[in-house]
Amino acid sequence: MSSSRQRVPLAETESPYFVGVDVGGTNIKIGVVDDQARPVAYDSLPTEIEKGPEDATGRIAKVIDSLLDEAGVDPAKVDGVGLGTPGIQDVPTGMLVRPHNLKGWDDFPIRDRLAEHTHWPVTFANDANAAAFGEYWAGSGRGRNSMLLLTLGTGIGGGIIIEDRTIDGEHSLGGECGHIVIDISDRARDCPCGGVGHLEAYASATALVKFAQEAIAAGRSTSLKARTAAGESMTPLLIAEEANQGDVLARELIFDTTRYLGVGIASFVHVIDPDAIVLGGAMTFGRNSTALGREFLQHVREETVKQVLHVLADKLTIDYAILGSDAGFIGAAGLARVASRERRANGC
Amino acid sequence: MSSSRQRVPLAETESPYFVGVDVGGTNIKIGVVDDQARPVAYDSLPTEIEKGPEDATGRIAKVIDSLLDEAGVDPAKVDGVGLGTPGIQDVPTGMLVRPHNLKGWDDFPIRDRLAEHTHWPVTFANDANAAAFGEYWAGSGRGRNSMLLLTLGTGIGGGIIIEDRTIDGEHSLGGECGHIVIDISDRARDCPCGGVGHLEAYASATALVKFAQEAIAAGRSTSLKARTAAGESMTPLLIAEEANQGDVLARELIFDTTRYLGVGIASFVHVIDPDAIVLGGAMTFGRNSTALGREFLQHVREETVKQVLHVLADKLTIDYAILGSDAGFIGAAGLARVASRERRANGC
């Protein structure tokens, strides 16, 4: 598996390339990215969890070689690999600890194994932090000093970047932003994590679907009822469709979400005061390409302003993510680039 | 005012000293601190706000000279000054913008004026962040990789340190931890800042006093009633005294506070995952020197564990601050030390 080739160090004058790898529960995305954050080659391979992490690591290395060949990039011009994986992980030691979406990959030294397979230094990150770095380097947060990415999907993920660094946290759990507490009342909602009153229980896709089901059970009149009675699944997309058709409840549920997000974002702002807040994931309703998406963002901004310190009210930047599912591998490559620059600054 | 003397650069081999300055609304604390965080000379002077910031800056410079003389420290062995001031400020430019407790000191370039008066490079910080750095360098957070200091007083202040750096935030408002939202219910309490449901409205000294007054107004039986009827002011100290005498309401109010703090700390943990959380300020009830203080801390820990992700439950470190009001100037000196090391690493 491991070849015996040696990587030749890059000369100072050459413009380097970086490889980004984003390991998910279904697919592994791999891209070769240039020094200006442009992907020059890209591939996606099935994770095939059941074959285990050693097999996957070997396949990743082979795909990297193919991509470089395809793009006509001399491997000597590649100055590092970035790797993002789901938690629970241990970033400093490069270990998968108990990754939620990668059953059986526990306690695997994925960073060092990938380094052995590829012969490049590998920079390791949480996948949400890698995606945040992608938006920070090349997406909606480009040119900002610091950024928070909130990914609004089945759950709520977060990634924080401050001046080129991911906030990994002491236990590699920095940016678990879905689990801040926003409701201490008796009616606080249960979070899938076991906690109570967490943001994720109010503003994720899962929460929106539950709110809709509860409203129907409580006898609210809504066109959602006919569609789900006809066998369709309750999803954020279905709720958005009915909101667009003028269903009052569907609109109400979607815009209630913006109130919870505003509260959560205000809290994040008061802790880390980032230069930009970026929203991604399915719960963004088509983003700026739809009227509903644009209206949703406007409401999030207004709800956040209601809760932040007055001095910050006109200083907030809240926008949608723009890189989609490419953010992970681009960000991983970007983190490899930061590590490369640090090695060079230290004369390595 | 500014003298014409030149500061002689320190030789690599010499063990340097640093000066820390902590500007408050009543007093300015100044200390000379050695490379191991030990204060070797200390003084406090009245702020005399009405004389303005230029006058204060000149007086600070004179006190620094006296302190060095008193301690027998050669000024050539001092490698920088650290300065902490209350917000609103602009850390990158070293400006006081509209400091809450320093009326009339708006828009003053305090960092650069102090540098001109002292001829040393001045490192500027928010006072809460400087205090956090003090506990991180020399106090309860010593040896930790990252730390959050929560100061529980009239309000709730915060300071975040990650690997030798203060999290200043893009608008110099990082660590405004009292203003995270913990209650979105209809009964959420008003925060002095104008927001609703903020932690400060539940777990500050001001909040505790309000809760006590409301309980008495609602007809709750308590020994607090007789004491305030006799003309004493309702304060955390008074409530603590009655709690120690076995008053049921007083104990209930104090331990309710730990529930709110647990919720808040869990949120901070899920955003930045710090290596240690340190609690300071008046709302710590004598800290580890009293039974009530020890019980309070134990409750805070238990309430936090209830709300954090399970994987973190046995990994949290929550302790009391130990430097008291010295944390500010020691931390400011520590930040000057970090800046000094960076200058040397960069060959300056």
Biggest protein-protein contact in the assembly = A-B, 52 and 52 residues
Helix content of chain A: 25-40%
- Given as residue ranges, the uncertain stretches of chain A (5+ residues, pLDDT < 50) are 1-6
CATH topology of the largest domain in chain A: Nucleotidyltransferase, domain 5
> What's the alpha carbon Rg of chain A, rounded to whole Å?
21 Å
In DSSP terms, counting alpha (H) and pi (I) runs of 4 or more, how many helices of chain A? 10
CATH class of the largest domain in chain A: Alpha Beta
What is the annotated CATH architecture of the largest domain in chain A? 2-Layer Sandwich
Q: Order of strands across the widest beta sheet of chain A?
A: 3-2-1-4-7
Counting helices, strands and paired strands, the structural category of chain A is alpha/beta
Query: How far apart are the first and last residues' alpha carbons of chain A, in Å?
Result: 27 Å
Number of strands of chain A: 12
What's the number of structural domains of chain A? 2
Q: Largest beta sheet of chain A, briefly?
A: 5 strands, mixed
